[in-house]
C-alpha cells in the first residue's frame, strides 16, 4: 500500500492514531514524475514538500558558469523540497529532477499549515525531521572540511549504496564537489590497489 512507506517513516519519530493518519493522508497528493522531469526549477517558487514513495531525485543548483552542484539525492523514504523557497515563498535557488521514473506524495504550504491545526502531533513530527536534517547537513559540512575527496567518495558509496548504484560518476562527482576526471582517478587508484 502506498501509505505504508509514509507510515513507517512517520513511526520512526512519533506515533499517530489511525484517525490522525487518515487525516494526514488526506492532505497529501500523489504525483508521478517521469525520468529527467523537473519537480522544481531554479527561479520558481517551491510550492510543495514531498515524500518519495519510489524512484530517485537529485537536488542541485546551477552556478553562473553552468556547472551543476548537487546538494543531495532523495530516494524512497526520503523527503525533498527547497525549505527556504517553501517557507518564505521566494524564488528557489534549486532544481529538483527525477533521475528515474518516480512517485511522490506532495503537500502544499496551505495544507501543511491546516494539517498542523487538525493533527497537532504532526508539528512535532516536522520539528523532529527538521532537527534530523540539520544534523545531516552539519555532518556533511564536517566531512567536506575534514575528509579528503577520496574519503568522502568511499563514505558516500558505503553509507548510501542504494543511491550510489543509481547514479552516474558525473552526478556523484557533482555531489562530492570534485571534477568527474578526479573521481575517475580515485576509482582507478582504488581498483589498481585491489
Record keyword descriptors for this entry.
194 residues; alpha+beta; Jelly Rolls; 50% helix; 21% strand; globular
Description:
- The structure is a single chain.
- By secondary structure, the chain is α+β, with helices and mostly antiparallel strands.
- It is 50% helix and 21% strand.
- It has a domain at 2-119: Jelly Rolls (Sandwich), CATH 2.60.120.10.
- The chain has nine helices and eight strands.
- A four-stranded antiparallel sheet has the order 1-8-3-6. It has a four-stranded antiparallel sheet with strand order 2-7-4-5.
- Strand 4 (56-62) and strand 5 form a beta hairpin.
- Helix 2 (18-27) runs antiparallel to helix 4 (109-118) and helix 8 packs across helix 9.
- It is globular, with a radius of gyration of 18 Å.
Topology, please?
Blueprint: H1 2-10, H2 18-27, E1 29-33, E2 38-40, E3 49-54, E4 56-62, E5 68-75, E6 79-80, H3 83-88, E7 95-98, E8 102-107, H4 109-118, H5 121-146, H6 149-159, H7 161-164, H8 169-176, H9 180-192
Antiparallel strand pairs: 1-8, 2-7, 3-6, 3-8, 4-5, 4-7
Question: Nutshell version of this structure?
Answer:
The protein has helices at 2-10, 18-27, 83-88, 109-118, 121-146, 149-159, 161-164, 169-176, 180-192, and strands at 29-33, 38-40, 49-54, 56-62, 68-75, 79-80, 95-98, 102-107. The chain has 194 residues and is α+β, with helices and mostly antiparallel strands.
Amino acid at each position: 500500500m502506498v501509505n505504508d512507506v509514509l507510515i513507517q517513516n512517520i513511526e520512526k519519530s512519533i506515533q499517530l492514531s489511525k484517525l490522525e493518519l487518515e487525516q494526514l493522508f488526506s492532505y497529501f497528493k500523489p504525483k508521478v514524475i517521469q525520468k529527467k522531469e523537473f519537480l522544481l526549477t531554479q527561479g520558481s517558487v517551491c510550492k510543495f514538500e514531498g515524500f518519495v514513495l519510489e524512484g530517485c531525485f537529485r537536488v542541485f543548483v546551477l552556478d553562473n558558469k553552468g556547472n551543476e552542484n548537487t546538494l543531495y539525492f532523495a530516494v524512497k523514504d526520503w523527503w525533498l523540497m527547497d525549505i527556504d523557497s517553501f517557507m518564505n515563498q521566494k524564488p528557489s535557488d534549486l532544481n529538483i529532477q527525477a533521475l528515474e521514473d518516480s512517485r511522490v506524495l506532495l503537500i502544499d504550504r496551505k495544507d501543511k499549515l491546516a494539517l498542523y491545526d487538525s493533527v497537532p502531533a504532526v508539528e512535532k513530527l516536522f520539528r523532529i525531521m527538521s532537527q534530523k536534517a540539520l544534523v545531516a547537513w552539519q555532518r556533511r559540512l564536517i566531512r567536506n572540511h575534514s575528509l579528503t575527496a577520496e574519503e568522502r567518495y568511499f563514505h558516500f558509496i558505503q553509507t548510501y549504496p542504494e543511491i550510489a548504484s543509481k547514479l552516474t560518476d558525473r552526478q556523484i562527482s557533482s555531489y562530492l564537489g570534485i571534477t568527474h576526471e578526479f573521481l575517475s582517478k580515485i576509482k582507478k587508484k582504488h581498483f589498481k590497489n585491489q
